[in-house]
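User: For my dataset I need records formatted as: sequence, then structure tokens, nothing else. Please produce one.
Assistant:
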Amino acid sequence: MTTHLQDLPQAPLQPLKLPWLATAGIAAAILRLDLIDPLISGNKWFKLRHHLQQAQQAGAPGLISLGGNHSNHLHALAAAGKRFGFATVGLLRGHPQQTPTVRDLQALGMELHWLGYGGYRARHQDGFWAPWQARYAKWHCIPEGGGGLAGAQGCAVIVEQARVQLAALGWADYDAWWLAAGTGTTLAGLVLAEAGAHGVHGALAVPGDHGVPETVTALAGTRGYQLHEACRGGFAKVDEQLLAFIAETEAHTGVPLEALYTGKALLALRDQVEAGLFAPGTRLIFLHTGGLQGRRGYL
């Protein structure tokens, strides 16, 4: 467990062996961000790191951010606040309800404000943060999902973590990344770190109107990545085919997945592999972005 902000936990890079990859002649490895920390899990630790450092340097007494009632981001933020000595406030989509995630947020000491659905949609409007900054003076405001340039820059380290482990796989190099895109921040971070050296493929786990392409373009430009449809009909939509695919994959690999991001991304990868997107001999790194606490919301 990481107890200092300067300490960055190392995620293991493991072979990912699945029948459909073998049939296509594609080698894959999975970078297990889900294993780095029991509470500040997955890509959330990387996205939050620079935000936490900025808050610490500014002497901010607390952290404010937004999310839904199953939010992996708010879950990680509440845990980080408790661990590193910040008070935390969560601005939640919708109306008050109890979920396993909400109960954890409360247990970790996060103060919750429910914005309704219209109030939450206003989060991108000018002036949204003003009343909260007035109410919580000098607190550090973090965009939804830990986004923004600070979040993307924090994710650049993910590329370094994979590269230092290639030799252990017997790989001299790799061809591309594949990962779920929820806000686009992690994707943008990988694109920035790669600087065109390797392609980055983002599986859009949210509908097109959630602004992921715009976010990635604003943070990382227009080159070095491709986006692929993966939301399966809407944000947080889960269907029987997806759940069956996850169960089968977990049986083959022993790697736990969740249905909103990693499961959708891996299923989208299978579809693209079977459609011939990648030539035989391609070496892919699949990014497990964590978020396993969210499984409780639909199991």
